[in-house]
Amino acid sequence: MLLNKSLTTNNMAKKSKDWIQKATKAIEARGTKGVCTGDKYGGPTCPPGSRRHNLATTFRGIAKKRKSKSPKKV
């Protein structure tokens, strides 16, 4: 028995399909792009455990996977 139709797996997949585009758009709109990059990662503007830090960790993981799949340059 489902209490809420929006909690079904199919609807959750539809809702979260473009989450990364929405997150990127919000970052650009707020002007916070680059706040959790490089030396600032884990610093006072990006403390561990914060939403900002968690999103940066996710983006780092995605980039790492993308780089490992790309063909090697000779």
Ordered list of secondary-structure elements with their pairings:
Blueprint: H1 9-15, H2 19-30, H3 51-69
Question: What can you tell me about this protein's structure?
Answer:
- By secondary structure, this protein is mostly helical.
- It has a domain of 33 residues.
- The termini are far apart.
Supply Rg.
16 Å
β content, as a range?
Answer: under 5%
Q: In terms of per-residue confidence, which ranges show pLDDT below 50 for 5 or more consecutive residues?
A: none
Give helix % range.
40-55%
Quick recap:
With 74 residues, the protein is mostly helical. It contains three helices and no strands.
Please supply descriptive tags for the structure shown above.
74 residues; globular; mainly alpha
